[in-house]
Amino acid sequence: MSNRKQVAQLAGVSEATVSRVMNGIGPIKESTRQKVLDAAKQLDYYPNDVARRFAKKQSGNIGVVLPFVPKVNLFSTFYFSEILSGIGEMLHESEYDLLLLFRDADGPKDYSRWFKTGKVDGLIILGSSDSQEERNALLQLADHHVPFCLVNQRYDEEKLSYVDGEHVSGSREMTAYLIQQGCRRIAFLNGPLAYSNSRDRLLGYRQALEEHGIEWNDQYLFYGNYSRKSGAQQAELILKLLPKLDAVYAANDRMAIGVMQTLKQAGIRPGHDLLVAGYDNSDASSVSDPPLTTVHVPFHLMGREAAKYLLRQFGCKEQPEIIQLKLDTKLIIRASTTKN
Amino acid sequence: MSNRKQVAQLAGVSEATVSRVMNGIGPIKESTRQKVLDAAKQLDYYPNDVARRFAKKQSGNIGVVLPFVPKVNLFSTFYFSEILSGIGEMLHESEYDLLLLFRDADGPKDYSRWFKTGKVDGLIILGSSDSQEERNALLQLADHHVPFCLVNQRYDEEKLSYVDGEHVSGSREMTAYLIQQGCRRIAFLNGPLAYSNSRDRLLGYRQALEEHGIEWNDQYLFYGNYSRKSGAQQAELILKLLPKLDAVYAANDRMAIGVMQTLKQAGIRPGHDLLVAGYDNSDASSVSDPPLTTVHVPFHLMGREAAKYLLRQFGCKEQPEIIQLKLDTKLIIRASTTKN
């Protein structure tokens, strides 16, 4: 491998000039710049990226924070995969690389250390949920005026940037659709309320019931943890309400698929004897038996938008702007609600 | 934020000593080291990670190379997600971070530039396929004696490290199982032969036929590109062989699910009128209609093993060892082949 000295000799300039050209620092005469670049090309010389970033006080990385849960295959979940894919697509068009960072479930939530140690120039935070500790960590990070963005989670009262889905209207539309299908007794299987997602879906469900003059019934509200297993388990309880039930609507597809498994084992046909709906429009929802009526969430686009926001901040001298973006969802109707 | 100078003053040492302690470079008296660490802690001082790595000539990153295909949501595929998840889990236990890198489909395949620019200390390469250009790029990389590892792809004649699955025996076991189920006319829908995977599966299929005295029939061999769509399309051709066919075995689950869709549209019941099998044991295979008989591939573990191999190289002064690891697969029997 060639070095800076050889490039300087071939170009007939000083080593400092080679550095300045390679790092894009300071004014350089165009003819000099071209001489250096030609010499570097001829010698197959690559300036050290780490050194170059260090000179510019940049890491060149956008960090994506994922929750780390041992023995759970995180990337397998449709949700994280899609968001990551959107971020990756946006960064591929930029000079930035994507650094995956894992947040321990139990460890101290110190997001700022990744900035302090110069590992990242910006952060995208996935899988955040509302606890006092998490909220404090995010507000502390905001105090440092570094660019970061939440995806699919909001802290409504706080001035924190996020890219989210329109989950209230998504859930309201789903519930209204089930009512239009003739259902009045609709069990709702929600996820944990620490996620703004779950609160949004609950609100949408409530709004649709009210708009259609259907009385609220606590008996119809169930909670799982967004896993297929929790859906299958809660379905055991939901079964006890039969035959007084017209539909089960779960806050994500995985739980809905778990519900359908339990129903089928009990000899109840989803889509015939009881309507079942999910949320997310995951890969699995289109191939499940029966295919699942669901709400499409533009996770891929949400990832893209979060990355685009960060890239926009890097050029600015000002402190980061705040964006609060909610992207549209879409009702997807399949056989699990059509009694065909 | 505090700086090195303040730490040096509080600890009563020179700034150079602070650097040496923080970077773990050279011999330092234990009492001095402790004084510096105490002062750093008291002042909430974080040494710049980039500077520290640069001093050690390390990036602290393991790069994971993924194929970049615009408008395809890469992470969504079970295959990449599982491998990435395994790598992430292994690195989480280490001091290394995971840098995602995208290889352009058309661009020059210069893997060495990520080492030359100091972006990574090691590479894990996913989605590699056999072309002269790719082979040259990998051999060139090997010439630099930098640690890297292929996952789920081999170049048999070359001395390149890989972690792969035992796909010949996996495919042989699947084919033998179908024969035991009474099938003699088994269509095989393979993926492109540029993947060692596809060649392994074809070989396993052939071996099982031979072992059971079933004559090879070119008519039964089809090719897709591992997408669900290609499975659905090839199934149109496969349908023309009916009723002279007992089973369709596809080289991955996505194609098998595509095949089942086309069959159902034509009024043919998978698992009753025609047995269907896949390969990968993806999430979708367990929820498809009917659930799919398949071969479990330990993708998560393959990712872990590749990362473990790289971490082992980093401590060594020698040139990287070569590992060639094949992990066991497992037959998974479900309703798509059981005529119940």
Automatic annotation (TrEMBL), chains A, B:
Residues 5-56 form the HTH lacI-type domain. CDD domains: HTH_LacI (cd01392), PBP1_LacI_sugar_binding-like (cd06267). InterPro entries: HTH_LacI, LacI/GalR-like_sensor, Lambda_DNA-bd_dom_sf, Peripla_BP_I. The keyword Transmembrane helix does not apply. Keywords: DNA-binding, Transcription, Transcription regulation. The keyword Oxidoreductase does not apply. GO terms for molecular function: DNA binding. This is LacI family DNA-binding transcriptional regulator. It comes from Marinicrinis lubricantis.
